[in-house]
Amino acid sequence: MSKMSSMDNINGHGIRDAENIQIPVPWGIVCGKWWGPKEIQPILALHGRQDNAGTFDKLMPLMPPHLSVLCLDMPGHGLSSHYPKGQSYYVHFDGLMLLRRIIKYFKWTKVKLLGHSLGGAISFLYAASFPEEVEFLISLDIASPCVRNVEKIASATGENIDKYLKYENLPLDSMPCYKHEEMIDIVFDAYDGSITRESAEILMKRGMQPAPTGKQFYFSRDARLKVALLGMISIDLALAYAAKIRCAYLNIRAVPGMKFDKPENYHKVLDVIKGGARRFEYHEVEGTHHVHLNNPERIIGIIVDFIED
Fold first, then answer.
1. What is the β-pairing status of strands 16-25 and 3-10?
2. Using CA atoms, how far apart are residues 140 and 128, in angstroms rounded to an integer?
3. Coil, strand, or helix at residue 78?
């Protein structure tokens, strides 16, 4: 059974409570934050690559109090278990498998999905793979798994495999540790303007753990997740998946938002989804790729109107 613990109280307009939960999986646990009432089936929310469930911490308190949302830490992220050595991260299809596993665990027959970046890409794959079992999909600043130049993917495969094995073999005592403020500085700089310092603090609530010394911290995410190019898809495959989507669909694109190798593919995918979706909405809002975390007030009205229409 899932385990409830650690009540987080959020004060202010639209008070909502979040409970940390643990879901058993064969390699350990998947953790999450369940916002709102527990007696109703939640919307499932998935974060972006190397983020965690905290990415929705500022958006969730703005949601209507009658809604329920389960924000997950994907494997190797946040407080969730890392994959064991020898098991690889192919984050898009691993995420698809994880989502199916969790939905089966709770015995849900139809689901509502919310995803940012990688989480939106995984939700896209789920809505395409199980088109009759998804009521709606809300995708934040992503249309599908990122479509890369296939020649670049082929050229970089060997290098990425060696990087993956290097990270896998890092001993725990060699993991770099930092003071709290140094950790926040590193995260803030690494996101290259996509998040505010406050947002970095929020992500690191689940994104770092105290070192054995107790005076420093290390990143809780699996270092192997730094290898991002394994298991990418082509535009042809992305369009084939897009053609399978039948649910109500909302896409919110941040401007300037995320930078893509081939930005024209974003709307190619959306055009195909629009042709098959039961309902389709597309909105642009000013902000970075993490607008939902930095400026949730810019998108909350769009999301609530879509859900309650």
1. antiparallel
2. 17
3. coil
| Encoded tokens for 190 | 């690494």
Phi and psi torsions of 96, nearest 5°: -60, -45
Task: Please report, for residues 174, 175, 177, 217, 289, the alpha-carbon distance to residue 167 in angstroms, rounded to integers and kept in the order given.
Answer: 11, 10, 16, 18, 27
What are 175-226's pLDDT values in tens digits? 889 999 999 999 999 999 999 999 999 999 999 999 887 789 999 999 999 9
Q: Tens of pLDDT along 263-301?
A: 999 999 999 999 999 999 999 999 999 999 999 999 999
- Residue among 117, 144, 199, 220 flagged as catalytic: 117
Unique residue bearing structure tokens 């629009």: 274
Q: How far is CA 136 from CA 45, 61, 143, 264, in A?
A: 12, 21, 14, 24
How much is the average pLDDT of 25-53?
Answer: 97
Beta strand 43-46 with 69-72 is parallel
What's the average model confidence in pLDDT over 136-140? 98
117 counts as catalytic: yes
Task: Locate 10 and state its tokens.
Answer: 């959020």
Hey, what are 110's tokens? Answer: 């139809």
